[in-house]
């Protein structure tokens, strides 16, 4: 399955769908997941320093024999590595672990109070030096994004946030669209914790697609990047098989009605 690319504000292209790697530590499981994903057409892989799997991802990609230029690697500065110097040194470590000369997209993992400004400035420097192709943030609210304008020489091109049918954050999407910041939806399946909604079930039946495929397709049609995680080969294949159908406007409307501010991950809204 061919995944469309999205053009970021800095001119770089990023696949609209990728494989999430949170809590995938087991070497065998990760290698099988990456191998299956590559074969199915995935080219975007979402890692993080905090996930502890950058080195295994590099091994898995090497074994898959796909060219470096054909994959898009995202990783993130861990909360414990914030600050100017630490962001610089820890990026060097990520590059080593990932066995690569550049990272396609580096994100600040969370809007860490007091330290996020210095970390952002470090990312700008690393980008200037050619070690990072694109730079962005994660878990930033509108307030955090507005604040960056005070000190940034360039704005983030991606904001990776929790976003799914049950947590739609329409104001944040509208703001990011206006500011040319691409929204990337993490936990797009709400961590498989709400797989019994009768409306999603009925829509899945109507299109002969799975519950998960409807959840993902909804986000694709909103123009978002999605990074579902799975270590199950059949699910990895199903999750990318969403570019051969289109939800009607009425069904999109029904799905929009399911927003209930249901958060499954950390909540940045109160972070000063
Ligand atoms: N920036 C951040 O702060 C942040 C936070 C959270 C996540 N993320 C990123 O976003 C990625 C995705 O989020 P997530 O891992 O939290 O949750 P998710 O992708 O919403 O859900 C993953 C769960 O859904 C199951 N699953 C996957 N495909 C399925 C299918 N077709 N049918 C039924 N169940 C399915 C998986 O099980 P199996 O694996 O057992 O198949 C796993 O339990 C992460 O891996 C990570 O890369 C970023």
Number of domains: 1
Q: Indicate the proportion of strand residues.
A: 15-25%
**Alpha carbon gap, first and last residue:** 42 Å
**CATH architecture label name:** Alpha-Beta Barrel
Radius of gyration, in angstroms, nearest whole number = 18 Å
CATH superfamily: NADP-dependent oxidoreductase domain
User: What bound compounds does this protein have?
Assistant: NADP nicotinamide-adenine-dinucleotide phosphate
Strand runs, count: 10
Flag low-confidence runs.
none
Overall average residue pLDDT? 97
User: Helical percent range?
Assistant: 25-40%
Specify the CATH class. Alpha Beta
Shape estimate: globular
Q: CATH topology, what is it called?
A: TIM Barrel
Quick one: biggest sheet?
A: 8 strands, parallel
The side-by-side strand order for the widest beta sheet comes to 3-4-5-6-7-8-9-10
Notable traits:
binds NADP nicotinamide-adenine-dinucleotide phosphate; 10 helices; 39% helix; two-stranded antiparallel ribbon; alpha/beta; single chain; eight-stranded parallel beta sheet; TIM Barrel; 272 residues
């Amino acid at each position: 399955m061919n995944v469309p690319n999205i053009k970021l504000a800095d001119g770089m292209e990023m696949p609209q769908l990728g494989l999430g790697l949170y809590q995938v530590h087991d070497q065998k499981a990760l290698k099988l997941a990456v191998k299956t994903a590559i074969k199915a057409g995935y080219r975007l892989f979402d890692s993080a320093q905090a996930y502890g799997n950058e080195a295994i991802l590099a091994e898995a990609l090497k074994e898959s024999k796909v060219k470096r230029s054909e994959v898009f690697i995202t990783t993130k500065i861990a909360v414990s590595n914030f600050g100017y110097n630490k962001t610089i040194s820890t990026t060097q470590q990520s590059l080593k672990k990932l066995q690569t000369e550049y990272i396609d997209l580096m994100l600040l993992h969370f809007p860490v109070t007091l330290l996020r400004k210095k970390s952002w400035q470090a990312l700008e420097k690393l980008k200037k030096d050619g070690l990072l192709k694109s730079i962005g943030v994660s878990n930033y609210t509108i307030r955090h994004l507005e604040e960056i304008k005070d000190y940034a020489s360039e704005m983030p091109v991606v904001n990776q946030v929790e976003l799914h049918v049950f947590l739609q954050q329409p104001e944040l999407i509208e703001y990011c669209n206006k500011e040319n910041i691409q929204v990337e939806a993490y936990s797009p399946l709400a961590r498989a914790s709400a797989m019994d909604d009768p409306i999603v079930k009925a829509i899945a039946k109507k299109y002969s697609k799975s519950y998960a495929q409807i959840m993902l397709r909804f986000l694709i049609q909103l123009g978002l990047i999605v990074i579902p995680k799975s270590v199950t080969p059949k699910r990895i294949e199903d999750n990318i098989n969403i570019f051969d159908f289109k939800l009607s406007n009425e069904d999109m409307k029904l799905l929009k009605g399911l927003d209930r501010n249901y958060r499954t991950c950390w909540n940045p809204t109160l972070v000063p």
